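> forwarded from #structure-qc
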């Protein structure tokens, strides 16, 4: 557990700094610049003070309209930019998968199902994920926090894309994704298991939707490597004048570039966030 990165709040339990990770060449991702979280609608006054003390001035919300209406974000006075980048999905959208389970419309969700949902989001909303990285590259928007509802799926994808763009090793990117299990998922499953049991559903049959399985994000990033790895490698070689190695061939980088991220913004991201 990265205790130094976790922000303990009363009204959100998956909020953390994604800085501090090694990024190659002896550099690290700068702490205090990029934060990820679950929804902000239940923040207490102490929570608002805590987040305000971090100097966070840009908040990016991945939730779609119905989610925002249900849970209006509470923001602190230092926020100067509140940016909506809605990524619609069937995980936390008009009707969540948990609701579908209780209604009898779903009885199981596999890791393959979740990887398919992630890839669908990635295929549909590439420009928005690229826009997030562009925003993060602008020092005037830092420190920045991005969030969805659970802070697990859309925020998990966004965090993985940002960390890959910064040159963080793949296994470390997966570690960051899985940290949600310790911060949120174990508690969530313990709460829901008795309720699911009443309708004849084992928590193990739906574990993939309630947790952050390493294999899901690993499969998604591997898919991007196959489809976009050559794009990322070509840009690396043009920017650095050196042959791309395994770390710099990230398909996530190629994916972002293919969906509108300017190579100059990629350079600026690294210049501002790597120390």
């Amino acid at each position: 557990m990265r205790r130094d990165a976790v922000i303990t709040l009363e009204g959100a339990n998956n909020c953390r700094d994604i800085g501090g990770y090694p990024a190659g060449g002896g550099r690290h991702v700068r702490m205090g610049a990029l934060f990820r979280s679950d929804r902000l609608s239940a923040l207490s006054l102490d929570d608002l003070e805590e987040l305000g003390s971090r100097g966070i001035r840009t908040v990016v919300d991945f939730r779609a309209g119905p989610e925002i209406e249900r849970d209006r974000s509470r923001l602190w006075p230092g926020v100067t930019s509140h940016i909506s980048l809605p990524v619609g999905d069937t995980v936390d959208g008009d009707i969540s998968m948990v609701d579908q389970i209780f209604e009898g419309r779903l009885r199981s969700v596999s890791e393959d199902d979740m990887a398919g949902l992630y890839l669908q989001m990635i295929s549909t909303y590439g420009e928005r994920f690229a826009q997030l990285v562009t925003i993060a590259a602008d020092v005037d928007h830092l420190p920045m926090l991005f969030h969805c509802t659970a802070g697990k799926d859309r925020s998990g994808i966004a965090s993985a894309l940002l960390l890959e763009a910064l040159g963080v090793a793949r296994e470390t990117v997966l570690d960051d994704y899985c940290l949600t299990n310790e911060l949120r998922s174990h508690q969530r499953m313990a709460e829901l298991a008795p309720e699911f049991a009443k309708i004849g559903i084992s928590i193990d049959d739906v574990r993939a939707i309630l947790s952050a399985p390493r294999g899901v994000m690993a499969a998604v990033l591997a898919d991007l490597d196959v489809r976009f790895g050559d794009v990322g490698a070509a840009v690396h070689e043009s920017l650095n004048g050196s042959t791309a190695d395994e770390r710099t061939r990230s398909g996530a980088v190629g994916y972002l570039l293919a969906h509108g991220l300017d190579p100059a913004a990629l350079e600026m991201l690294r210049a501002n966030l790597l120390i």
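QC bot note: The beta strands are 16-17, 34-37, 58-61, 81-84, 144-147. The longest helix spans residues 170-198.
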